[in-house]
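Quick start: read one record
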Amino acid sequence: MLLKSTTRHIRIFAGIVENNKLLPDDQLLTLDIDPDNELNWNDTTVQQVYRKFDELVKCYSGSDLTEYNLRCMSSDLEHFVRTLLQLGQISYNLGSRVNNYSLGLPRVDVDTEAK
């Protein structure tokens, strides 16, 4: 049975992708970041999420591989993504097919100069 956890922007699977198929594997975790492309990413922020994921995997090392533990990890990563958005390191993709704003409303710069 494939163990998995999905949030709006994070999906974790106990398995590996081979030949475009996800194969269950209780020794490997696969991370899918923002599968619906709701956010604008750069290489640095993607790597930050992967490093955070690696930290969480290390923290849960020795624990049983359960859906609950995967949900905890994906929830922590979802909060981390929210922090990146709040810090302005990523932004909403306004051209996405779905504009959900599940992490909060987008920031809009206001021109404070009177015209």
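The chain is about 30% helix and 25% strand.
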